[in-house]
Design a protein that fits this description.
alpha+beta; 3-stranded antiparallel β-sheet; 17 helices; globular
């Protein structure tokens, strides 16, 4: 088959990549894709192993300069963006990653997340009831987006009048994670990074003088064996929590409802038995993976499925393909809301496993549950269109009627 069957910029591929992935898994599970300059890996077994393999990393800068890896030095105008991103834990490797994750985990605890459940239940209920009362609309803009944004804002301690700023900043910053972003997207991301950093710096300093019961205060106060987060690390962590904590959750919610509307038998099953919600969330995360591809840099020569990949290469791990691998998931293209076991890798694996996975699961379960109760007759109004990006895969809008 032609390598070009895999085209992460093509709208048809973004809308339905699964037939291409099925062919790749069977014929070319590892291949070099010239347009992206990446080695594409599509089988569950290989993606699973590479996510845990310390010979790969989210970054290579702890072991080599850009030039050593055959990469262009980063443009000077991008410095504010990269300074912000690398102050968080997502794009760094041990020992820096180990230290940051240990400190953040002391503040962002399971107890804190579970303590948010009543707030999440209330917010989800209010959004669903308001949406149902007006007879529907864009489920993504009116339900899927406001819930995680408000939850993260509540958790961090962002004042209510400022919360409208968060989603645009986050969306602009996340534009940089798409493949080969154009210059205007890069400049917009830099501007958002500067504005968001300045805002959070002010908030963090205010909390230092006037501590509150919120995550910014907790992060500022956390100390482990005399170690603490620097102000830059605190800000980078807050930006990461917002971006990772709601971009994927918004997409997962919209994608999940679209999957249900295409599988009405399963939607009826869920309406008849709300106790299915928790396994339904896992299956929807598998079936339409909201972050279908993660990249890693090869820090030492490796061999994957008999293919040699050299140090300095970049691999594109196809989560969405792995989540449809028939070697792991029987009848993988069938939506089965009671699928068990369901070892999907939507939240990643290894040291970079998503810290916010428990929060995302609560948000999705409460959101779906609230809409099922408030709008039991929810139905699709118009067929949705996918946004152009593939790294963060979601719908432009999802218009429904109650």
């Amino acid at each position: 088959m032609s390598d070009m069957s895999y085209d992460p910029w093509a709208s048809a591929f973004v809308a339905d990549p699964y037939p291409v992935f099925a062919r790749l898994r069977g014929e070319r599970p590892v291949f070099f894709h010239e347009p992206t300059g990446q080695w594409v890996v599509s089988r569950y077994e290989d993606v699973n192993a590479l996510l845990r393999d310390r010979r790969l990393g989210r970054s290579y800068l702890h072991v080599a300069a850009h030039e050593e890896f055959g990469q262009e030095p980063e443009a000077e105008f991008l410095k504010p963006f990269w300074d912000l991103v690398r102050a968080g834990m997502l794009d760094v490797e041990p020992p820096t990653h180990t230290r940051l994750r240990r400190l953040v985990s002391k503040a962002f605890t399971a107890r804190m997340v579970e303590g948010l459940r009543p707030t999440i239940t209330r917010l989800a209920g209010d959004l669903a009831e308001g949406f149902a009362a007006k007879g529907g609309g864009d489920l993504i803009a009116e339900v899927a987006e406001p819930l995680p944004v408000n939850v993260i804002a509540e958790m961090l301690g962002v004042p209510v009048p400022d919360r409208h700023l968060l989603r645009p900043w986050s969306a602009d910053i996340c534009g940089m994670y798409e493949l080969n972003p154009p210059p205007e997207v890069q400049r917009t991301a830099v501007r958002a990074a500067v504005e968001f950093s300045d805002y959070l710096r002010g908030l963090a300093r205010a909390r230092r003088d006037d501590p509150r019961d919120d995550l910014i205060t907790a992060l500022a106060q956390v100390v482990d064996e005399g170690d603490r987060l620097t102000e830059d690390e605190l800000i980078g962590t807050c930006v990461l929590l917002l971006n990772a904590g709601h971009e994927a959750t918004v997409n997962a919610t919209g994608n999940g409802w679209w999957a249900l509307f295409r599988n009405l038998g399963e939607l009826e099953r869920l309406r008849a038995d709300p106790s299915l919600v928790s396994t339904a969330v896992e299956e929807l995360l598998r079936y339409e993976t909201p972050a279908p591809m993660f990249e890693r840099w090869v820090l030492e020569d490796i061999t994957v499925a008999g293919v040699d990949i050299p140090r300095g290469a970049e691999v594109a791990l196809q989560f969405a393909s792995a989540n449809r691998d028939p070697e792991v998931f029987p009848d993988p293209d069938r939506l089965d809301l009671s699928r068990d076991p369901n070892p999907h890798i939507t939240f990643g694996l290894g040291i970079h496993y998503c810290l916010g996975a428990p929060l995302a699961r609560i948000e999705m379960a409460e959101s779906f549950g609230a809409l099922l109760r408030a709008a039991p007759g929810l139905r699709l109004a118009t067929e949705p269109v996918w946004k152009p990006g593939f790294v963060l895969r979601g719908l432009e809008a999802l218009y429904v009627e109650c």
